[in-house]
Amino acid sequence: MDSSLWLKWSTDPVILIGVPVAGILYARGLQTLKETSRSHHFGRIACFYVGLSLLFIALVSPLDYLSSQLFLAHMTQHMILIFFAVPAIQIGAPLIPILRGTPKSLRKNVLTPIITSLSIRYLLRLIFKPLIAWPFFIGSLAIWHFPFAFEAAIESDLIHFFEHFVFVAGAYAWWWNIIDPFPLRSNLSKLAKVPYVFITIVPGFVLGSFLTFAPAAWYETYNATTLAYGVSALEDQQIGGLIMWIPGSFVIATALLLALRSAVRAETIQQLQKEAVGK
């Protein structure tokens, strides 16, 4: 194993600059909300910064370098991005704080025209529709694990960046319909969220099991790197498959239980209100 592994941090300027800037703008925006809104309580704020930290760990820490050496590290990186960093950032409701934290001239001349653009708003509404968001999320997971796409992302920094962008965008669209992204609302009712989450379990389960029980390693890149870490390419892939299969399914199952609990609570409150009106 490379003894200098802990020194191998990524120098990707998009993340190195983007993550701290997002954190600063969010903090600046919160200052303007303190006296006018209680929507951003400690829990939301903590989730946002946890999400940013996870984003940084996944894409800048030595885990990013290790992902080019071990498939299991690559899968860990992807799981952190789509199942932990993205939902944590969404729970943090960053839209209003970041907008308010952006310098006024930049907000007025750049961000406001983009946000108010009818074409941009239409495109975002389309992407976040459940019938688009779900196949976008599942499709991004499936396509990037085909050997030709996976190998291309490993060999090209540009394609690798695009892969991560697609993963994060797909996950953001999928989680949008589960988490109420304050101040906006999910496109699904509380009851409709239950089957939406439920049908997501199967594709991840299937892909994880294929990777785990494959008779041979899918990705040639790791044939030359895994032995230095004490595992064969096939064993590495099997562990990576288990990482997608078990922790990934656990996160989705947890989201399913929370969605079911929320739906039951909403239905109970609605029924009690009807009974109260009937009296």
In short:
With 279 residues, the chain is an all-alpha fold. The chain contains twelve helices and no strands.
The biggest sheet amounts to: none
Average predicted local confidence, pLDDT = 88
Series of H and E elements: HHHHHHHHHHHH
Tell me the domain tally. Answer: 1
Q: Count the E strands.
A: 0
Helix residue percentage: over 70%
Structural class: mainly alpha
Note the beta-strand portion.
under 5%
Distance between the termini: 73 Å
Low-confidence stretches: none
Shape from CA axes? globular
Radius of gyration: 21 Å
Query: Helix tally?
Result: 12
Could you walk me through the main structural features you see in this protein, from its secondary elements to its overall organization?
- This protein has 279 residues and is an all-alpha fold.
- Helix content is 75%, strand content 0%.
- Helix 2 (42-59) runs antiparallel to helix 4 (71-91).
